[in-house]
Amino acid sequence: MKNRFQPARRRVLQGAAGAAALGALPRFAFAQNAPVKIGLILPMTGPFASTGRQITAACRLYMAQHGDSVAGRKVELIIRDDTGLAPETTKRIAQEMVVQDKVTVLAGFGLTPLAFAAAPVATEAKVPMIVMAAGTQVIPQRSPFIVRSGFTLPQNTAPVALWASQNNLKRVFTLVTDYAPGLDSEKTFLTRFKEAGGTIVESVRTPLRNPDYAPFLQRAKDSKADALFVFVPSGEGLALMKQFDERGLKQAGMRIIGPGDVVDDDILVSIGAPAVSVITSMHYSAAHDSPENKTYVAAMMKANPGMRPNFHSVGGFDGMHLIYEAVKKAPGGTGEQLVNAMKGMKWTSPRGPMSIDPATRDVVQTVYLRETRMVNGEPWNIEFAKFENVGPGGQI
Ligand code: DHB
User: Fold this and answer.
1) Do 175 and 202 meet the contact criterion of CB atoms below 8 Å apart?
2) Residue among 73, 70, 5, 77 at smallest CA distance from 41
3) Which residues contact 37 (CB under 8 A, 6 or more apart)?
4) Contact at 8 Å (CB) between 138 and 115?
5) What spacing in Å lies between the alpha carbon of 272 and ligand 1's midpoint?
6) For the segment 284-302, what is each residue's pLDDT rounded down to a tens digit?
7) What is the pLDDT of residues 206-256, one digit of tens each?
8) How far apart are CA 97 and CA 79, in angstroms?
9) Is the pLDDT of residue 264 over 60?
10) Which of 188, 261, 282, 314 to mutate to test the pocket of ligand 1 (most atoms within 8 A of CB)?
11) DSSP 138
């Protein structure tokens, strides 16, 4: 049986090679008409559901504004909930999307351990993987198919370390969530702040699951440090800021500083007055003053009443931009060609100017210093300084 079929198969292959030589590629033509299937894997339920809600809303807005087809191909969003907690679930969903749905691109990834879990699937399937949320610096090194549209923690930590050292904060207590992005942020702050002459009073790490910040905040208060440096992932800032307020740390004269995740725009109105005077560095504020951002915020709030877009949302919006533009540049292209098309791409996002570093496939962008202030009765992160073209390692 086997032998009987071999000559026929060889003929088919020769036929395809002949067609390729003539420039008429049947497979290529098929891919050019096939839909662009985007497999979005995000926490849509559980403690990190706001990340999924924000990113899906932004991806849908991008499609509403740019059309549901690109380069003649229909764009399909396939959204799956990984609940944000179990890496093996994310990996299984990524495998199903590749094998059953035959996605063109994998995207989303709300937390670093989930991005790590999916990376080998992208490598094996040769499918681009757009990391829209997770922020640990090493992530793109886990697969040559990863491109990041969000941010890194070193990028968003370095500017506030410099600000602290230049603004009379001499003794700082650090608190970070005990997983990869927390450690990235802690390391960046400790290195940069100490280099600039600052003193670290104590460094504590809180669990990712069911954290109770109270005992750590009491220790911070007892330390009489000038400031508390905080990194917690998006959504956690609400509990942390409430306890900071209830324990009277602000009244005791302690400032909060850190990357902007703790005063995330999604929860900032719920935090309310305790957020005022927090100083953070971040790549995105809903208050960013540009025509692109005014259009973006108005459209997001119109489509999603009561939801202020946060920094994760722009990771989704810009991730969609990367996918659309790559499909235009490499129509019908393979995963490798799509990733190559994304390398070096440059554009103006609602966050400001950004690009993809071709060497690391990571995001290069402006990072802003902001102070949380009340404007017309609502807290907003108001930008007051900026660092341009900050790379993933946070060199400023
Ligand atoms: C990560 C997740 C977040 O929600 C965030 O704000 C920062 C980092 C992460 O898991 O990488």
Assistant:
1) no
2) 77
3) 76, 78, 101, 102, 103, 104, 105
4) no
5) 22
6) 999 999 999 999 999 999 9
7) 999 989 999 999 999 999 999 999 999 999 999 999 999 999 999 999 999
8) 10
9) yes
10) 261
11) T
Ligand 1 pocket check for 51: Cβ under 6 Å? yes
279 bridge partner residues: 257, 371
Whose structure tokens read 């005990």?
178
Burial profile 243-264: b = 16 or more Cβ within 10 angstroms, e = fewer:
bbbebebbeeebbbbbbbbbbb
| HSE toward the beta carbon, residue 208, CA cutoff 13 A | 16
* Helices and strands counted in the chain (H then E): 13, 15
Q: Which two tokens stand for residue 316?
A: 């989704």
The pLDDT tens digits of the residues spanning 159-172 come to: 999 999 999 999 99
Q: Ligand 1 pocket check: which of 51, 53, 85, 112 to mutate, most ligand atoms within 8 Å of Cβ? A: 112
The alpha carbon of 93 and the centre of ligand 1 are apart by a number of angstroms equal to 20
- What's the pLDDT at 378? 97
Average pLDDT score over residue span 73-82: 98
* C-beta of 258 in contact with ligand 1 (< 6 A): no
Decide: 257 and 369 in contact? Cβ < 8 Å: no
Per-residue pLDDT band at 33 (split at 50, 70, 90): confident
Per DSSP, 273 falls in state: G
Show Cβ contacts of residue 218 under 8 Å, excluding neighbours closer than 6 positions.
247
- Tell me, what amino acid is at 196? A
